[in-house]
Task: inverse folding
């Protein structure tokens, strides 16, 4: 069972001015990161990697060289880094586009117009599909 916390007692003891000062200090700096990402590790090599990539080195070739010196990164992750750096992204407000379903991909507009064109019209011409009853 959990113990009951008396927040009235905590509020009476709390130094709100000191807490406000501490929170203001925290707002001035970046939050601590628990884990480095591939972008963090490769950031010091950013300009060199971009230059090599623009010169014609593929991401797979660059990854082979990076792995040889102990940086285990996948070609896809390196491409993400290169794209991130090329677009001038800072990581804020990232938007990832999802891949289209291969079955639905292709030409979705064609399937929409085909299905609308295949609809029958009622005899009255009101735009409603005709209702076909068996035996009538």
Result:
């Amino acid at each position: 069972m959990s113990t009951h916390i008396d927040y009235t007692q905590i509020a009476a003891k709390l130094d709100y001015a000191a807490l406000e000062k501490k929170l203001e200090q925290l707002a001035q700096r970046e939050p601590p990161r628990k884990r480095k990402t591939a972008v963090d590790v490769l950031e010091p090599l950013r300009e060199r990697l971009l230059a090599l990539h623009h010169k014609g080195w593929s991401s797979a070739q660059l990854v082979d060289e990076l792995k040889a010196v102990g940086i285990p990164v996948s070609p896809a992750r390196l491409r993400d880094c290169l794209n991130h750096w090329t677009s001038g992204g800072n990581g804020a407000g990232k938007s990832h586009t999802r891949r289209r379903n291969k079955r639905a991909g292709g030409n979705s507009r064609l399937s929409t117009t085909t299905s609308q064109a295949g609809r029958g019209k009622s005899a009255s011409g009101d735009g409603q599909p005709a209702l076909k009853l068996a035996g009538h």
Notes: The mean pLDDT is 77.
